[in-house]
Amino acid sequence: LCMQAAVKAQADACVRQIIEWKEMMGPEEWRELYVVIPTVWAVGAENPRKTMFRQFMDEDRVDSHIITSEHPRDQGEARTLLGRIVGDRSIGRFVFGDETKEQRFKTLGLSSEVDVVQDDALPAIWDAVQRNGCPVRRNRSSVVENTERRKSFTPSFC
Questions:
Q1: Which of 9, 91, 74 is nearest to 36 (CA)?
Q2: Is 34 within 8 Å of 67 (Cβ atoms)?
Q3: Is residue 78 within 8 Å of residue 72, measured between CB atoms?
Q4: How far is CA 106 from CA 37, 113, 121, in A?
Q5: Element (H, E) at 10
Q6: Angle, CA of 90, 96 and 102, to the nearest 5°
């Protein structure tokens, strides 16, 4: 009961603060906002901070502008991480292009939790397993789901 009360108080305060920031920034600046959420592995995939920001970010920016990481221990490290991610995406546009969904997927892959070759690797791995007489286990891990979801995702940074 105490945990529920604490989470409710945290959600109420944080949601009000996010709304205040969004209004203060205005729609143009808010659209360009990146959010870096320091976390630990055990709660990195889903956590309240990430869920709250998902509610307020522009829908086409949720996957590209909310970043969770174990690395940043202070604001300087968060800025370095963000600079690397945004820089990788810029370089990715030069390397892979951004005309097709596949090219945008590769560009986003340079700066996400999914390996840049994952979309090509999955079918190759499954074919190799099958050719060697073993059953293919197409588990619905978050990496596979993220890879398949990103194939249809058109990142707004392109």
A1: 74
A2: yes
A3: yes
A4: 23, 12, 12
A5: helix 2-32
A6: 110
**Length of the chain, in residues:** 158
Per-residue pLDDT of the chain in tens (158 residues, 90 and over written 9): 899 999 999 999 999 999 999 999 999 999 999 999 998 887 777 889 999 999 999 999 998 899 988 888 899 999 999 998 888 888 888 888 889 988 888 887 777 777 778 888 889 999 999 999 999 988 655 444 554 554 454 444 43
User: Hey, what are 144's tokens?
Assistant: 């596979």
Q: How far apart are CA 158 and CA 154, in angstroms?
A: 8
What's the predicted TM-score (pTM) here?
0.70
Q: Helix, strand, or coil here: 141?
A: coil
